[in-house]
Amino acid sequence: MSSGCVQSGLHDDGRQIIHEIYSAYHSAMLGRAMTYVHNLWDAEDIVSDCCVSLMRHTPLLQQMNPARRTGYIMAAVRNTALSHLRKRSRAPLLCPDELLDVYASPVHSIEAEIAREMAADLLGALTGREGEVAQLRLQRMPTKEIALKLDLSESAVRVCWHRARKKMRQMLSSSEAG
Question: CATH topology for 96-177?
Answer without folding.
Answer: Arc Repressor Mutant, subunit A (1.10.10)
